[in-house]
Amino acid sequence: MLFAALIERLRIWRRERETLAELRRLTARDLFDIGINPADVRSIAREAARA
């Protein structure tokens, strides 16, 4: 059970990092066009990874 929880946490962390990297590749203008404030990128990546 502990091992499974650790693996899941690592998967979430990896998805968060991937999403964060993708969002950081966008310009501020691109982010605004899709309705994302650049200051919210980290929290959005965190939420997306847990979804």
From TrEMBL:
Organism: Labrys wisconsinensis
Pfam families for this protein: YjiS-like (PF06568)
Residue ranges of domain YjiS-like in the record: 6-42
InterPro entries, A to Z: YjiS-like
UniProt protein name: Uncharacterized protein YjiS (DUF1127 family)
Domain of life: Bacteria
